[in-house]
Hints:
By secondary structure, the chain is α+β, with helices and mostly antiparallel strands. It has one domain (34-132): Tetrahydropterin Synthase, Chain A. It contains four helices and three strands. It has a three-stranded antiparallel β-sheet with strand order 1-2-3.
Amino acid sequence: MQRRALIQAGALLTASAAAGGVQAGEKAAPAAAVVNMTGVGLPIITEGRVRNYVFIVLKLHLGAGHTVEAVRAKEAWLRDALVRAGHRTPFVLPDTWVALDTAALSASLIRSAATLVGRGAVTRVEVVSQTPRRRTGMQGV
């Protein structure tokens, strides 16, 4: 019985010493700050008509020196700017009504974040998912 306890104690000490050595010798790099934006609905507009809506989930990667709290405080304004840009110049792909142009959407949101939150606040916009209201492609073109 004591032999089993001794073996378990030795294994526990070895594991804790190894974990402590990694923490003391090498500091972990800070994780990049990310803000998730869910449920933003953007229109697909062609020939002056709303053809479909696509609901997107975004992940905003923040730049150095910008906090998650500062960007979350402006999230409503960022959503508004994105929806306004989506109506003014739709993020439409030429061959489908069920997906958005992610490059144009990303560039627009980064420009809006620079004016609303500060230059370099959002360095990258990742489109996590796109869910169209209607799942059909182009109709009656």
